[in-house]
Structure formats: C-alpha cells, structure tokens
Amino acid sequence: MAELTPEELKPAFHADQFCALGELEPLTFADLQPRAVSGIHRLANFNGDSPVMLLNGFPGVDYEAACRHLIAGIEGNDGDLFDLCFTENLNNPFKPIWLQLQPGSGYEFCEMVAELLKLANHHLDAERLVTRIMRKQNNDPKIDDFLSDLTAHVALGLEFQHPVLINLLVHHEQRELPVIFGRDLSWDTLFGSINYQTEQGSVYANHHLLEPGLVRQANGGYLILPLDELLDQPHLWFKLKNAMQQGFLDWNAYQEGKTLTPFFSPEASPVRLKLILVGDRLDVAEFQQLDRDMAERIFLRAELVSEVNVSEQLGDFTSYLAGLRLRWNLLDFAPDAVAALCRHASRLCAHQEWLSLAEVQISALMRLADSVARDEKATVVTSEHIREALCEQDFRLNYLIEQSDLGVIDGQILLQTDGEEIGQINGLSVIQVAGHPYDFGEPVRLTATVHLGDGDVADIERKAELAGHIHAKAMMIIHGYLSNQFGAENPSPLSANLVFEQSYHEIDGDSASLTGLCALLSALARQPIYQHFAVTGAVDQFGNVQPVGGVNEKIEGFFRVCKIHGLTGKQGIILPATNHLQLNLSDEVIEAVEQGRFHIHPVSHVEEAIELLTGCVAGDPDQDDTLFGRIQGRLDELNGTLPREGLLRRLLGRLGSSRQ
Known about the structure:
It is built from 24 helices and 29 strands. The protein is α/β, with parallel strands linked by helices. The protein has four domains: 110 residues, Helicase, Ruva Protein, domain 3, CATH 1.10.8; 171 residues, P-loop containing nucleotide triphosphate hydrolases (Rossmann fold, 3-Layer(aba) Sandwich), CATH 3.40.50; 95 residues, no CATH class; 213 residues, Ribosomal Protein S5, domain 2, CATH 3.30.230.10.
C-alpha cells in the first residue's frame, strides 16, 4: 500500500469550519446523552413503589451535574411529594408518630395546630379550625386521629413531654421535587438519627431531637447515590434496599449500644422516592457481585456515552465546548482554537471520526489555555495558546520520558535506526506507569534465532514469566502461521527463540506479533531487516495484519529515538492499515512526514511488511527465488525432502561457485 500522506495523520479540522465559542448556544454534557434522557423520562413517569435506575458512566463524569440537568429537563409526577413531621405520641411518649402533610403546607399546619391549642386551652370551640385543617390536608385519617387525641389531651389538662409539639423534618415550600445527591455517606446522614441530651446525669431523647437523613428528604423526588460509596459500606445498601421494598424506614442505629434510651422508638416513616445509582462499569460489576438479586431486578438502566460522532454531532460538540467556557468563565475561543480543541478531543478517544466528552481533560486544557492567553494580555484564546498550554503540560509531565530517552542517548539501550541485521527488528510498545496521567511510547528490540529442533517457537518472555496471557496467545498464533505456511506437509526441523531484549517488566498484548513474526522470517531466510523501520501490528494464522492500540504513542516514541540518533530520511513506521483512523500525531511528526524525513507505511498482510523490511519479494514457498521460497528450501533440505535433481543442482551450483 502507498505511504500515508500528512493529511491522513490527523483529523480534518480547519478553522473555517467553526465560529467563536461566544457565538454559540451552549449545551451541557447531559444535553448530549439521549440514552440517559430516555431512562430519566421513564423513571420520572414510573408508577411503581420506589423504582431504581442504574446509570452507567465513566471515570471523570460529574454525575451530580449530569443528573440534575437530566432531571430538570423532564416533567415528572409529583404525586408522591409530601412534607413530613414527627409529633409527640399522646398515648405513648416513647413512640413519636409521623404525620404526612400536603407539600408546602408544613409551616401553616404547625401554626394552625398552635392556634388550635390556644382555643382548646381557653375552652373555646375549635371545630371550625379542625375542619379547615382537615380540608387543607385532604381529610387524612391519621391527622384526624391526632387532632382528636390532641383536643382530648388538652381538655383533660394533661401535660406534654416537650414544649415543641411538632418537629417539621421535611418541608417543600416551593413544591419542587427534591433532587438529592449523596456524598460522604454514613448511616446517620443517609437514614437519619436520634440525637440525645443529658440532664442531671440522665440521658433522654424526644421527637424534636430527630434528624431526617437524605432518604426522608428525598421522599417524593430523586435520591442519587454513587455506587463506589455503597460498595465501601455495603450495610448502607442493604438497609436502603429493605426500606424501599417495605416502603418504610425505621430509626434503628447501626452500632449496637448506640441507642442510649432503648425504650425510645419513633415510628417508621414512609419511603417513596426514585433512586438513581451512578458509577462506571467496574463499579457496576462489583455491585452485581455484592447483591446479585437486586442487580438482576434493576430493569431500568441507561448509558452515559463518552464520545460523539464527528459527522453527526460536530455542531453539538462545539456547543458543549461553549457550555464549558461559560461554566469556567473563560475568554472567548477563536475558530482556530475550537479546531485545536476538537483535534485534542479526537486524540483523547483515539479516533479521527469521534470526539471525547471527557469533561475533566477538555476543561483542563481550556482553562490552561485561558491562563496562557491572560498572561499574554490577549482578549481571545487562539490555537497558539492551546499549543503552548499542551507544551507546558508535557514539560511538567515528561520527566519519565526523558529518563527513558537517556538510556538511548547514553548507548545503554541497544536500538538501531539505521543499517541491516538478520533476526533483529524494532518493535513498538506503550508504557503505562501507575500514577502517571498518560501513557507514552517506547521502542524495544526483538531478536529471533533459529536452531535444529522440533519446530517449536520458544517465547523467552513467557518462559521467564514476564508475559501475559494475550502475549502468549499471540506467540502461538505466530507458530500457527509458520506451520501453515511452511510445515503443512512436513514438520519443521528448525526451532526458534524469540525475545524482547532489555525488557525487565511484564508485557502483554498481541501488538508485537507482526514484529516477532517478521523477525522469525528474517532469521529463517537469513535475510537482513532494515533497522530504520519499527513495526507494530497483530496477525492471525493466515498472516492478515490486525489493528492494535496506542498507535500514536508508539509512533511518537520511535520518532523520539530517531531524532536522538539523527533523522536520515529513511526511517519510518510499519503499522496495520486498519489503524489509519486512529492516527492523530503531533505536529512535529506530521511536519517530518511532510518533509520526507519520516515515513508511515500501512500494511494489510505480513507479506507486505516483510517486503518493506527486507526489500525482497515474499513470494510463494514453491518459488525458489523468493523470500518464502528460500525458507521452504532450507527447511526441505534439513528435512531431506528436496527432490533428488534439485539437491544435485544445488550441490553442483555450490561446487561451481567454489571453483570461481
């Protein structure tokens, strides 16, 4: 295939496609989540008791902001909304009772009850006031019983346990559905608590010392809980699950012995809310292990998507950028800056046709570029400010990369970017360091040797227990290809050793299988490989080259080494043709390609790769004058399966050459 052009090495974003962010109508992250909108709509109009929704996201999502925006855009049913108060149980002061009031009527109810007490104390007729109260509370029978007991209690001249008769725990003055996001959860913050007071050595509690907790505050609305907090404290989940299934929440304390007055037991209050559990897929997987029964019963699920398609939603994405700009009160972004942001978002999701919605990373770059622009007294952020922000960020974080390159500079890492060698090839790897914010590429040398044996390919990394299962599978696929290509009729008399030189940590993945296979073919054919190439790619048993991950980091890693050794104009990368949409390279690499100092070759089959690496035609095993023919001839000779006339011809040829 033809060498890739500079235009193919990055997504096609140009300043003339965009306008300044200040000219756009801003959108939020939630506005770009149609799946979540559908889920919230169904949840809002669900008529069952306390439904549960599972919202799958990804690391870095602001779940609270997303859920609040999603819920704000949905018209839900407020029929479950109510105010909640606790009052003294006039028949048993150790068991306060709850009263469910019409939403927004809590303060008025307390005032009317206070007026009722005054009338009763003065032995005045209060029937009309009771009728008014009952009418405002929709003739609730429990409130009717309480008012009857209250008037009888006063008529008998009995005392109250506390001067504050009613504790209004939850009041919805605006009649808006509560949307509560739980964080730093504990038993008391989630389920409420009973406070205690000490007086003259005695500990006591009363209804006015009750704290509602988030569950009671969310009644009639939405409670949003992060899965990671519930996974850290499973007892919270099982308590909440039971309360929602029963429809009532008691006041039991989590720790035994915390109930200082064992006879004080307020009445369990009603629970009617809509629960949204949020977390990424790892959290969801752990949650399913924690409570498999409930995980299966949650039938309402939705996904938060992490990226949008360029061809379909580029306009929405730039409006999303406009929303981030307003959120952080940033300078306006010029069209060329918008194009640069889109390119960065494309790199984050490693695909030219998709844009990442990772708010943390994108807003971080926007804020850094804004700071750079303000330092320069600019009134608008340009692409140059974004480039400077990225360069500053790389400088602050590239210490490990510099240390990696130091080994090449000092000659301690043996890598060649020029010349030819048999059975030696430059591979490409991606280094992931715990605690480091991003991965980076690092070339590695693979070597292959062959010897008489039973045809086995010995993977030294696997034998040294420095390789993962996927790498082991890739090495077996290499063996499968060689057996299929050269040993279909006769077993191979040659065995091989394959190793990653100067590798001292565990490796995994199949992205080096094309590299290893080419090194083996070179060793089998005794044909040198051009060292100015580096190779990445996976293969199947038929030699088809398959895509790999981290191609941008890998290419930039080899380019760094080539710069250290000196660019010759021949150096380049061989990669899977199917990876071309993942390319989003740095300006420095693209400029080198444009000037002909660096080259990127896509291949679809191992034959294309080995021909580039050796300059020889791969050909067919039956063709003597091809690379594969030479390998087959060598194997047949060692097996003793060459045709007799062919063997004589070879011997005569050798004699003729020796006489010369």
